[in-house]
Design goal:
Helices cover 33% and strands 40% of the residues. By secondary structure, the protein is an alpha+beta fold. It has one domain. It is elongated and about 65 Å long. The chain starts with a strand and ends in a 7-residue tail after the last strand.
């Protein structure tokens, strides 16, 4: 099967990103929305010098008060109501129900490989412009072919 360079790289990005987006979409569909309460801002360290803030949030589930660590730098004060999503079969699998809380890590985990593939796509020596990509079930599985006919005497 022959594919143009743009189609090949679009399919490659989808192949890399789809597992992250699909898993999170399924997580969101199975999750339950509740109102949580912002408890306090916790502090941690990454290495010796880097200080990290995180939010400590509680919400009711299964007749208990569940606490979890959420995103850092949230604009809430202690006692503020915070939207939360959690998995009914595992209430400790909870997230703050805002875009960054639900999709932020997915954007990073899928965005970094997508960015690297974009760099490879734009680099003329990796897959030259105007070339086509041949996919086969035998070795080599991927071949780069020129779309211009070669002129050999």
């Amino acid at each position: 099967m022959y594919l143009s360079k743009p189609i090949f790289f679009i399919l490659l990005v989808l192949l890399v990103a789809a597992p992250f987006w699909t898993a999170r979409a399924l997580w969101v569909m199975r999750s339950v929305k509740v109102k949580g309460v912002f408890g306090f801002t916790g502090n941690g360290f990454a290495g010796d010098q880097v200080r990290l803030d995180y939010s400590v949030i509680s919400f009711p589930a299964e007749g208990k008060e569940i606490w979890f660590n959420g995103l850092g730098n949230l604009p809430y004060k202690p006692g503020a109501i915070v939207p939360v999503r959690y998995q009914p079969d595992d209430p400790y699998d909870a997230r703050v129900d805002i875009f960054a809380g639900i999709w932020g890590d997915v954007l990073v985990y899928s965005g970094v490989p997508a960015f690297l593939l974009l760099v490879l796509f734009l680099h003329r020596k990796v897959v030259p412009w105007g070339s086509r990509v041949r996919l086969t079930f035998k070795r080599p599985f991927i071949q780069i072919t020129s779309s211009k006919p070669s002129v050999h005497g």
